[in-house]
Specification:
Elements (H helix, E strand, L loop, with lengths): L3 H7 L26 H11 L2 H8 L11 E3 L2 E3 L7 H13 L4 H18 L1 H6 L4 H4 L3 E6 L5 E6 L6 H5 L2 H16 L10 E6 L10 H17 L4 E7 L6 H7 L5 H5 L1 E3 L4 H8 L20
Parallel strand pairs: 4-5, 5-6, 6-7
Antiparallel strand pairs: 1-2, 3-4
Length: about 300
């Protein structure tokens, strides 16, 4: 008869391994591979709310809870939401709300309703006067991590009354430009962008109630309906009298968003010191401290 020690040695030992939340179950890509266990838990809970979210967002559509919805080039199917790029998009809402699925759901519903009321598709198809908006926005290269770099050139049009005189038209242009910038993201390896807001040529006379209202409304739109799209944001060539912009923005922005924002002075050396650590000099225009051709 075996001894007690022999029995103990022969008996199998059952060790409870930590749960693997994504192995062999979830479609994944380079971005979902970076999700933490806490993020996967929150995502699965949020995902279970999708049908309800669509039904609440579009109460007049009896099929809203089961029909696919396309946003930012990705189809979100509430009946079959296990798609890696969909997970990346939903995670944006979760991260914007500290991984609280209920709060993320509220933000998601608000965004769906806003996109319908604003008519984002119509804004993207609208033709804006080239003499007013043609030089205000540029996409120029990528940073060292592959994020597209988006430039907003507020001094490119000398008559800012033409830009901001019709606040709603400016907002439609700005949303359309944002949507076209997002179209550069694949949600496989890259889901954020670098924004550079250049105020060169903006004078004291350009400060108007319309420009302040436009800045405030645009900030509210992007904070509320475009979560976690910024990798970094730089304000360059900022004259001291425009400090009001940042006091205006601050109450509307989360701490995490503010941490991504940097205010830079003027001159290619000063700007280059801020931008060259993240953008290769070959992809940065000379006027910003690089060696690429200026646009």
């Amino acid at each position: 008869m075996p001894s007690a020690s022999q029995v103990s040695a022969a008996a199998p030992t059952h060790v409870l391994a930590p749960p693997v939340l994504n192995e062999g179950v979830e479609p994944s890509n380079a971005l979902t591979a970076k999700f933490t266990p806490a993020e996967w838990i929150a995502l699965k809970k949020f995902r279970s709310m999708l049908s309800e979210s669509f039904a609440e967002a579009f109460p007049d559509d009896p099929d809203a809870g089961v029909m696919p919805y396309r946003m930012w080039g990705i189809t979100i199917d509430p009946k079959n939401p296990k798609e890696a790029r969909v997970s990346v998009i939903l995670m944006k809402f979760l991260r914007a709300r500290n991984l609280d699925p209920t709060e993320a759901k509220d933000m998601f519903i608000s965004t769906l309703r806003w996109r319908e009321s604003f008519n984002v598709d119509a804004a993207m198809n609208e033709r804006f006067p080239d003499e007013v908006f043609g030089n205000l926005g540029k996409v120029y290269g990528k940073d060292k991590q592959g994020h597209p770099v988006i430039y907003n050139l507020y001094g490119a049009t000398k008559d800012l009354n033409a830009v901001f005189g019709d606040v709603q038209r400016f907002l439609r242009w700005r949303v359309a430009f944002m949507e076209k910038s997002i179209a550069l993201l694949d949600f496989e390896t890259v889901d954020q962008m670098v924004q550079i807001h250049d105020y060169e040529g903006v004078g004291l006379s350009n400060r108007t109630d319309n420009s302040k209202n436009a800045a405030s409304e645009a900030s509210s739109i992007f904070q509320g309906h475009y979560p976690e799209f910024l990798s970094r944001k730089f304000f360059v060539n900022v004259p001291s009298f425009l400090a009001w912009i940042f006091w205006l923005f601050k109450p509307l922005l989360s701490t995490a968003t503010l941490a991504k924002m940097t205010v830079v002075g003027s001159g290619h050396r000063v700007i280059g010191a801020a931008l060259l650590p993240i953008i290769d000099e070959a992809k940065l225009p000379k006027k910003y401290g690089g060696v690429a051709v200026d646009f």
